[in-house]
Design brief:
By secondary structure, this protein is α/β, with parallel strands linked by helices. It is about 40% helix and about 20% strand. The chain contains six helices and five strands; from the N terminus they run H-E-E-H-H-E-H-E-H-E-H. Helix 1 runs parallel beside helix 6.
Length: about 160
């Protein structure tokens, strides 16, 4: 069984592909039963498509590979916190687990999810993913963050 760190290193390889073609360096991959079933990296500029995020590309690839629109037994590894659009797509995919590396205070989903005073009181919470989705964050956080910093530093 491979570790979260192993799979995040594979997602970082995808992010480096994006970096090399001048895209914001975010990579994603989807695993199921210990096997990588899909990969993606940002291609917004390359495809001239604002929705061509790493997560969206990996999700579409996984759906096509499995012939299914739901991924309850899959895990997605993303180098950076998903944006609200990608969090919504992950919600609808019913993915079993989301693992990401670096936080994204500027564009991540957490910026738009307002914490509620008490989940018990209201019955809902600041959770953009499917209720059964498990979230793990901070895996190889420094490595993921350094790649993003290097990309934006080179552009300034």
């Amino acid at each position: 069984m491979m570790t979260d760190e192993y799979y995040m290193l594979q997602a970082l390889k995808e992010a480096k592909k994006a970096f090399d073609i001048g895209e914001v360096p975010i990579g994603a991959l989807i695993t199921m039963d210990g096997k990588i079933i899909a990969r993606g990296h940002n291609q917004v500029e390359h495809l001239n498509d604002s929705s061509a995020h790493a997560e969206m590309i990996a999700l579409t690839s996984a759906f096509n590979f499995l012939g299914s629109k739901y991924l309850p037994d899959a895990t997605i590894y993303i180098t950076v916190e998903p944006c609200l659009m990608c969090a919504g797509a992950l919600y609808w995919s019913k993915i079993g687990r989301v693992v990401y590396g670096a936080d994204d205070k500027k564009n991540g989903y957490q910026k738009y999810v307002i914490p509620l005073p008490s989940i018990e009181e209201v019955g809902v919470g600041p959770w953009p993913f499917h209720p059964k989705t498990i979230l793990s964050k901070g895996v190889l956080k420094e490595e993921c963050s350094l790649l993003m910093k290097a990309f934006f530093k080179a552009r300034r």
